[in-house]
Amino acid sequence: MKNLHFKDFFWNSDLTCTGGYDAIIQYLNEGKRTCKEVEEFMKARASIEEKYAKDLLGLSKKVCGHNEMNTLKKSLDIFKLQTEHVSLSHLQLAQSMREEAKKLEEFREKQKEMRKKMEQQMDALHKQKSSQFKKTMDTKKTYEQKCRDKEEADQNVNRNTNTSNTKHIEKLYTKAQQAKQNAEEADRLYHQNVTTLGKLRDEWLKEHIRACEMFEKQAMERINFLRNTVWTHLNQLSQQCVTSDELYEEVRKSLEHCDVQEDIEHFVNLRQTGNKPPAPVMYENFYSGQRSPTGGPPSRLPPPIIRRGPLPDPSNNSRDDTVLYSTVQDAGYSVIQY
To answer: What's the whole-model pTM score?
Structure first.
């Protein structure tokens, strides 16, 4: 299938019309706007990645498993370390995105400058062409009017050929000669302007074709550059996923070596306080001073009552006795006298 090109499909039947050229310029302006939008999109994505990286870096510095021990502590330490590495990789990704956005900006500005020169040349040619076309049309109207004046003067001479008024005939003849000269001068000017317009048209045709070829080349470069830029952007994102997964894999490998039983035994060996439980509390009888031989729980029965012998008869005691007992019936009963 034959390729389509700008130079073959953006012409107009009216010489002064710039519809085809304007359509191309509009297309290029829309393409430039697309470049700007993609550039801003990538800058915004880079800002998001940078913010995420900084938040992730701050998170990796927070305490996580500080009091843990042995294999799980090692895994948690690696987990924090790899989280920090992931944050740094996202920071690098943000920088790479900004570099790609900068390249796109430089490409857009370069095309803008190249277009500017060509558009200025084309605008100047359009103005010259339009001005010369108007001038040519004005001289054409003058030429046609002078031709009509000449024909009218010739007809007046022919109509009065047989008149006897010599002065009138001479006057008509002089007028006819003047009309002929005017028509010839108008014809010369008209022909000159047509020739000038033809040269301008030829120059404009060449420049229009050259502009179409240049604009088409720019459009192709822009489409290709944008496609490659987005492709590179996606490759960066995919590589980030791969990098993150590789870093996370280090954590997974560490977790594979995390031994539950080993951590339990490590804690026991490190913090053990003894391998014997406390002895049971024995029941001690206040009166007997004996402990329950069985070591079982204290009996719920009340302790046995040990009865004392009868009180000594105070009447049998003398003042020389060491101890004097008082009875309840004595008026002075309150203490034991020694």
So the answer is: 0.72
